[in-house]
Write a structure and sequence with these properties.
Length: 623
């Protein structure tokens, strides 16, 4: 019990610490370590908005050179040429401040490698040329000078101009006057912990490291650890410890991390309730009458686990016991788009990227909807995105390019689909074929342009063309359109004695992945999970329905870095704004669900569905 309490206390400490940053812009807390080793010294860090830039110096022949050791000294690499002169020009250009943005501050940390007694007089002489640029005692917006490395003893600080500050150490007892000359407190991380930046420090080390930072803050001084690993995971931990200056050798990467942090972290304060399935017929070898296929576009394991953590450690999808993996590569590429990924599931054959319901030989293939119609099953296709987009289109259309949205819309005329729900009114209503809507009406389709209209329908073929606003992101107020559309479609199709097939797509998990926006991904994942709940509940009530949950591919290369399911908080990072070749999970619930275990190609899902429906024992309506 004591151990549990101790660990919980440390976890709460890490989660609740508020960063004591001295700058108003997050990335401005970056400290460009050994900046002179950058491909473009000063400028890389400056344009990344770093608030602290460090340069090591040696004195030779009356000149200060930027170098880590004497073997690196180069005639062109003087402190004045690389740092003092360009910083002075920036300062003047910005109206006597370091950056154009007045909220950004800057300090130049000069690490004296040897002989401060000779180096400091030369530095003071060099700084005098630039008057108030580096004199924080005359101008609060000046670029601060902080001396580190080989420094004078604290008792001698008073012998140097008061615009020069010094890099202090946490275990030195400074007098009140000496403390006034301390610009920051620094120490080497590995002097206190074996933590190497991977994972988190031990609870004991957390207390130790936090104590150092707190001690500096009690002295009203910012704190920095040096010799830290340079990774988002390290930055996250350092921030939680309250560290003010984040050490980095990658200024641009640190800037991007902080600049996009609102898109990389999500907190769900209150978990939504999760349904516990009955499992009465789960996995049994008994007849399957209905199939509900739920496709989370762009949903990989990381997206699922992000949703799981953000819902405080539970989701409906995680209650499904029978699982497998689908390999998503296209026929002409190791990486798939939604067209080839959706088509593989819809036609049972891998095809080329951008192809909709077509084989790689450019010939049409009979899709799942039309195949099942031959046996009397009625089908519905639903999306909370553009209904002519790749994944839903693969179940009713046949085109060689996913961008042919008007041609895709016209393909509905030849489809045996019963219900189609999604957005993109334009491709249908303003189609070049001006008679398209009349022709669809002749085919028995009733047009609804809102969910309210659709919800009042009780029979007949349905074309539900929602306004784009109705399929805006969940985070922008869409509501449970996907879940409600599924329930209404089930309500209408369950009257069919031969059974039904429904494909419902959570299109915008993919959109969030392309945008590298974790809150977007997780909120769409939660919306999809609530739709999964509706399907599971119906499957339990019906007893003859198989629910399959999968994805056409993974989007974004999402990596999860930090998580706390107690608070519903998740932090991640994306490796791409495109699709990846990562295998995606397949979840199955209901009779025949064990057929979906294992690892297989994505087109096998088509054949597995036909197998569990036992079509060979059913009467073909066209025989």
């Amino acid at each position: 019990m004591k151990k549990y309490f101790f660990c919980a206390m440390i976890g709460a400490l890490l989660m609740s610490l508020q960063t004591n940053a001295q700058n108003t812009v997050a990335y401005n807390r970056g400290h460009s370590h050994n900046d002179y080793h950058q491909n473009i010294p000063l400028l890389s860090a400056y344009y990344a908005g770093m608030g602290s830039i460090e340069v090591d110096v040696f004195l030779r022949n009356g000149q200060l050179y930027a170098a880590h050791d004497t073997t690196e000294i180069s005639a062109d690499a003087t402190l004045r040429k690389l740092y003092l002169e360009p910083l002075s020009k920036f300062y003047v250009k910005n109206g006597n401040r370091p950056y154009e943005d007045p909220s950004l501050k800057l300090q130049l940390v000069i690490d004296i490698k040897a002989d401060y007694r000779r180096v400091l007089p030369q530095l003071i002489k060099d700084l005098e040329v630039y008057k108030d640029v580096f004199n924080s005692t005359k101008n609060p917006a000046a670029i601060c000078i902080v001396i580190s490395g080989n420094c004078p003893k604290p008792v001698d600080f008073k012998d140097y101009p008061d615009y020069i500050s010094f890099d202090g150490r946490p275990n030195v007892a400074y007098t009140e006057d000496q403390l006034k000359r301390i610009g920051m407190i620094s120490d080497e991380l590995k002097s206190y912990t074996k933590w190497n930046g991977k994972g988190v420090p031990t609870p004991t080390d957390v207390i130790k490291l936090k104590g150092l930072v707190d001690k500096a803050h009690q002295m009203n001084k910012p704190f920095r650890f040096w010799a830290t690993q340079d990774s988002p995971n390290t930055w996250i931990v350092l921030e939680k410890l309250g560290t003010d200056w984040i050490n980095t050798d990658s200024p641009e990467k640190l800037r991007d991390f902080y600049l996009h942090k609102d898109k990389l972290t999500y907190t769900n304060p209150v978990a939504y309730p999760v349904y516990t399935p009955q499992y009465k017929v789960d996995g049994l070898k008994k007849p399957v009458k209905n199939v509900i296929l739920l496709i989370g576009d762009g949903m990989g394991l990381a997206q699922i686990h992000a949703g799981f953590i953000a819902n405080h450690g539970d989701m409906n999808i995680n209650r499904i016991k029978n699982t497998g993996f689908s390999q998503t590569g296209a026929s002409n590429s190791g990486n798939t788009d939604s067209a080839a990924g959706g088509s593989a599931i819809a036609i049972g054959e891998k095809t080329n990227n951008r192809y909709i319901g077509m084989g790689p030989d450019d010939r049409k293939r009979t899709n799942l909807v039309d195949t099942l119609a031959n046996y009397g099953l009625k089908s519905g296709v639903i999306s909370v995105g553009d209904i002519t987009d790749a994944t839903p289109a693969a179940f009713y259309a046949h085109q060689v390019d996913r961008s042919m949205t008007e041609e895709i819309a016209r393909d509905l005329l030849d489809s045996k689909l019963e219900i189609l729900v999604g957005s993109n009114q334009t491709s249908f209503i303003k189609n070049k074929n001006t008679q398209l809507m009349n022709n669809l009406a002749d085919k028995g389709f009733n047009l609804s342009t809102s969910f309210a209209e659709f919800s009042n329908q009780t029979k007949g073929r349905q074309l539900v063309l929602l306004q784009d606003e109705a399929t805006r992101p969940v985070k922008d107020g869409r509501g449970e359109v996907l879940k409600e559309s599924l329930l209404q479609t089930i309500k209408m199709l369950k009257k069919n004695k031969a059974g039904f097939f429904i494909m419902a797509e959570a299109a915008q998990i993919d959109y969030g992945g392309h945008a590298n926006d974790l809150p977007y991904v997780v909120t769409e994942m939660h919306d999809f999970d609530k739709t999964i709940e509706a399907a599971l509940r119906f499957a339990d009530q019906d007893g003859e329905t198989l629910v399959i949950v999968t994805a056409d591919h993974e989007t974004g290369g999402l990596t999860l870095l930090d998580a706390d399911q107690q608070y519903g908080t998740i932090t991640g990072e994306f490796s791409t704004n495109d699709h990846t070749n990562i295998m995606v999970p397949v979840f199955a619930y209901g009779p025949g669900s064990d057929e979906f275990r294992g690892t297989y190609q994505n087109n096998e899902i088509f054949h597995k569905i036909l197998k569990v429906l036992k079509l060979n024992s059913r009467k073909n309506c066209f025989n």
